[in-house]
Design brief:
By secondary structure, the protein is of the alpha+beta class. The protein is built from four helices and 15 strands. It binds 2-amino-4-trifluoromethylsulfanyl-butyric acid and cobalt (II) ion (CO) (2 copies).
């Protein structure tokens, strides 16, 4: 339903822009703590502190009973990895996903990191995941169909021999964590709602080396793994549709 997608006011956009900038800065900040043998729980603690020190709250904490302040998804974990005492080791690839609430406004972003030397396959996967987000951003302009984001991402990723996860999607964001619309990373050409200035949503394609299928961890109810335990990679940005294109609100400008 088009009418369920919130068109943000100038005031809301300014608030969401600030929250997005903090989320992006948090991902830069955590970069200096990524040493071999560090636990994901330690990284979660540093992220929680940084967000609070900047007058904001970490959105994941207690969201639908999620127990930590960010998601850290290592190797075959597709998304929603729960920070724990388990340690990052040489050769791991991992996604850190940060969502901030600043003055009531949400900013959502994630990126891949790696520990030491990683396989050629892992490097290629990370590059394809990065480029697939960029391809989605190119499709983000007023008058375009949301479906064209997933249509172009699918075409590109399949041409590289990888698969796109269907079980988890991008989403409207800003005044709530998850708003309309659902942003599919695989879709039919010219399907779905039409983008309008003032809409804000995430694009966050999860790309797998093997099967697109995922398996939810029975014990914690959150951790989503690839069904074949092969690698997965993801990048996420929060995007504003403007009068003449888009603004990537979680992009870190050199400043
Ligand atoms: N940040 C994730 C997203 O991109 C959602 C995490 S839900 C949580 O939509 F509960 F795990 F935090
Ligand atoms: Co998101
Ligand atoms: Co996120």
């Amino acid at each position: 339903m088009a009418k369920k997608i919130i068109i943000k006011t100038a005031e809301q956009i300014e608030g969401i822009r600030k929250s997005c900038r903090l989320a992006a800065d948090t991902l830069v900040y955590i970069g200096s703590f990524l040493n071999e043998g560090v636990s994901t729980e330690f990284l979660d603690k540093k992220i929680d502190e940084y967000i609070r020190d900047h007058g904001a709250l970490p959105a994941p904490l207690h969201y639908q009973q999620f127990p930590k302040s960010c998601c850290i998804s290592v190797n075959e974990v597709v998304c929603h990895g729960i920070p724990s005492g388990s340690k990052l080791k040489y050769g791991d690839i991992f996604n850190i996903d940060v969502t901030t609430i600043l003055d009531g406004y949400y900013g959502d972003t994630s990126k891949m990191f790696s520990m030491g030397e990683i396989s050629e396959e892992a490097k290629l996967l990370i590059n394809v995941a990065f480029d697939s987000l960029e391809i989605g951003i190119v499709q983000s302009f007023p008058g375009n169909y949301f479906g064209n984001i997933g249509y172009e991402i699918g075409r590109f990723v399949h041409s590289k021999g990888f698969r796109v996860v269907r079980d988890y999607c991008g989403h409207g964001v800003g005044v709530k964590f998850h708003e309309e619309p659902q942003v599919d990373h695989i879709a039919e050409k010219n399907s779905g709602e039409i983008m309008k200035p003032g809409m804000i949503f995430t694009i966050e394609p999860m790309i797998n080396v093997g099967t697109q299928r995922t398996r939810l961890d029975k014990h914690d109810g959150w951790t989503a793994r690839t069904a074949d335990n092969k690698l997965s990679a993801q990048f996420e940005h929060t995007i504003l549709i403007t009068n003449d294109g888009n603004e990537v609100l979680t992009k870190v400008e050199s400043r």
